[in-house]
């Protein structure tokens, strides 16, 4: 699927420009129901303790979602390149436009309609911070696997994973970076990608890669340190990473084989960083809920086995259903910790 991304991003950007033009405040004359080429003005506010960001459980806005979010539909329906097709056919005046524009069939739409929206989601409070941290965590996951591939002397395979943070994620988090007065680092990511493309053996590559990773860490550091170490907060970020990994893995596997190596590698990077994040809070979780800690750690360890290396194996280690089961178990136990933390905070 991702082999089409660069082409479709150009097409999608045109659609997004059209969408922006259609989002102007309606006059009295045109304030009736939106046409097929316009987008309604409805918004949904998501606030404290409610996460609707990347990898969250809330509905996905098909007019604004990035490719990794749309991959959830691709994995659910098993339609190759569906994420790109959804982007390329924007804007949508209603969720049903997915059918009228022949992006998917009515039967397929019925399977995902409860997860589709065209409402703009406005994040506030902790939900906004979780969304911010999750997107930066996804960037790190991409770069983790890119570094592995570079170390294996596979620059062509590494290049897309350096490109994804710029092409898919940075634009979606840029406003928050500016709000938090984080120094711009898109230029560094683009330069790194260009260097990998043009001269992957350049000694400067290692320095530039380290600088890019440090830039993401500095962006994460814009969040207060106590918040970044709070189990309830980190577990929601981990859930976002694992949801994205689950979707990417589902899109990668076909007939028991790894049919889409890039998605396989994306999901590997997300799980690796999710595991790293959990190590940072596991002792706190164990103190408050040892059973949940054991379940989360055990299932994360089992989940890591799905990706034995950055280069995909010929046969998938586990089915997408197996991965979904592991992710669900982790998230269920994470929710126990979050609920317990919220209860204690209310006392």
Summarize the structure.
This is DNA uptake protein. By secondary structure, the protein is mainly alpha-helical.
Lay out the secondary structure.
Blueprint: H1 5-22, E1 43-46, E2 60-61, H2 67-77, H3 82-88, H4 97-100, H5 106-112, E3 116-117, E4 120-123, H6 125-151, H7 155-179, H8 186-198, H9 204-220, H10 225-228, H11 231-252, E5 253-254, E6 257-258, H12 261-288, H13 290-304, H14 320-346
Parallel strand pairs: 1-4, 2-3
Antiparallel strand pairs: 5-6
Helix pairs in contact: 1-3, 2-3, 2-11, 6-7, 6-9, 6-11, 6-12, 7-8, 8-9, 11-12, 11-14, 12-13, 13-14
The overall number of domains is 3
Distance between the termini: 49 Å
Helix content range of the residues, please?
A: 55-70%
Overall structural class, as computed from helix and strand content, comes to: mainly alpha
According to DSSP, the number of beta strands is 6
- Rg, rounded, reads 20 Å
How are strands sequenced across the largest beta sheet?
1-4
Query: What is the strand content?
Result: under 5%
Q: How many helical stretches?
A: 14
Structure description:
With 347 residues, the protein is mainly α. It folds into three domains: 58 residues, DNA polymerase, domain 1 (Orthogonal Bundle), CATH 1.10.150; 98 residues, Up-down Bundle (Four Helix Bundle (Hemerythrin (Met), subunit A)), CATH 1.20.120; 120 residues. It is 65% helix and 5% strand. It is built from 14 helices and six strands. The strands form three sheets. Strands 1-4 form a two-stranded parallel sheet. A two-stranded parallel sheet has the order 2-3. Strand 5 and strand 6 form a beta hairpin. Helix 2 crosses helix 3, helix 7 packs antiparallel against helix 8 and helix 13 runs antiparallel to helix 14. The chain is globular. The N terminus is likely disordered.
């Amino acid at each position: 699927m991702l082999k089409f991304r660069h082409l479709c991003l150009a097409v999608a950007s045109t659609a997004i420009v059209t969408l922006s033009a259609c989002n102007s405040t309606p006059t009295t004359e045109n304030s009736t129901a939106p046409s097929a080429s316009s987008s309604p003005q409805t918004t949904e506010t998501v606030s404290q303790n409610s996460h609707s960001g990347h990898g969250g459980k809330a509905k996905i806005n098909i007019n604004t979602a990035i490719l990794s979010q749309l991959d959830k539909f691709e994995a659910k329906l098993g339609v190759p390149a569906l994420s790109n097709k959804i982007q390329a056919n924007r804007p949508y005046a209603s969720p049903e436009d997915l059918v009228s524009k022949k992006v998917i069939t009515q039967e397929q739409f019925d399977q995902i309609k409860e997860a589709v929206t065209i409402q703009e989601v406005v994040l506030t409070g902790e939900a906004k911070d979780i969304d911010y941290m999750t997107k930066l965590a996804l960037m790190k996951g991409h770069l983790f696997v890119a570094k592995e591939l570079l170390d294996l002397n596979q620059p062509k395979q590494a290049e897309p994973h350096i490109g994804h943070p710029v092409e898919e994620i940075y634009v979606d988090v840029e406003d928050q970076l500016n709000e938090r007065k984080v120094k711009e680092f898109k230029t560094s990511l683009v330069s790194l990608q260009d260097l990998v493309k043009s001269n992957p053996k350049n000694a400067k590559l290692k320095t530039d890669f380290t600088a890019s990773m440090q830039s993401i860490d500095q962006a994460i550091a814009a969040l207060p340190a106590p918040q970044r170490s709070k189990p309830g907060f980190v577990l929601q970020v981990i859930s976002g990473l694992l949801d994205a990994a689950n979707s990417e893995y589902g899109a990668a596997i076909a007939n028991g084989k790894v049919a889409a190596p890039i998605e396989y590698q994306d999901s590997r990077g997300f799980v690796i960083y999710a595991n790293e994040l959990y190590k940072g809070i596991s002792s706190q979780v164990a103190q408050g809920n040892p059973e949940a800690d054991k379940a989360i750690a055990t299932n994360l360890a089992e989940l890591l086995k799905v990706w034995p290396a950055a280069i995909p194996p010929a046969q998938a280690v586990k089915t997408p259903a197996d991965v979904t089961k592991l992710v669900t178990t982790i998230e269920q136990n994470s929710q126990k910790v979050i609920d317990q933390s919220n209860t204690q905070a209310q006392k």
